[in-house]
Amino acid sequence: ILVKFFEPSILQCFLEPWAREMGFIICYGAIILKLYRHLIEFRTRKAHRWVVKDTDLLKYLLIMTLSVFAYMAAFTAFMLNFRRENYDLLSEQMIYSTGLRFLACKPLLWDFVTE
């Protein structure tokens, strides 16, 4: 939401997917790892107790974050290729009821997949 607060620009069109994807993986990755910890602690098949260390959970979260980072780096390279081919990432849109015109980032097809 903070990225969308500012006036639309090419930089904002690059930062918005990064903020969305990295925020998603950090937030929901932490929730999934907490659930994983509870499921491991209350495992009843073995007689001994399993303990998941915080450092292990942080390692798992780091792996998830780095994989999303690599994915977003490929996505950014894809968008930079669009810029080299003079594809404009900004589009002028209009609210029909008021006739108000504004700039917004053009939604790419891959944006719909990641959302």
TrEMBL record:
Membrane topology value: Multi-pass membrane protein
Keyword Electron transport: no
Name this protein carries in UniProt: G-protein coupled receptors family 3 profile domain-containing protein
Annotated G-protein coupled receptors family 3 profile domain residues: 5-94
Gene Ontology molecular-function annotations: G protein-coupled receptor activity
GO cellular-component term (any): plasma membrane
InterPro entries: GPCR_3_C, GPR158/179
Cell location: Cell membrane
Pfam families for this protein: 7tm_3
Keywords: Cell membrane, G-protein coupled receptor, Glycoprotein, Membrane, Receptor, Transducer, Transmembrane, Transmembrane helix
Organism, as annotated: Cryptolaemus montrouzieri
Family, similarity comment: Belongs to the G-protein coupled receptor 3 family.
Main location as per UniProt: membrane
Membrane-spanning intervals of the chain: 18-36, 57-80
